Amino acid sequence: MPRFKVEIHGEGLERALAALNGADIPTIGPTFTWFGDQRFQQVRVGDRMLAVLDADSAEEAEARMKDNLPDDDYDVGAAEPWGD
To answer: Count of CB atoms within 10 A of residue 69's CB?
Structure first.
């Protein structure tokens, strides 16, 4: 079965990460950003993440992503073959 990567954009990616991992869809990210000097450093979760999943087609991969993400707060990118 082909493997696809799908990029996800949006705020609050912790919820998306939990939902996708709960549906056995592995994720890479989200990215983290550090602000401030060492004494007052703050960490902020980025707004992009990558998911990797097996599907029969790119359309099926995108549909599975949308079905398993909470709400409609996220933009799902086009599925692309993984490793090509």
So the answer is: 21
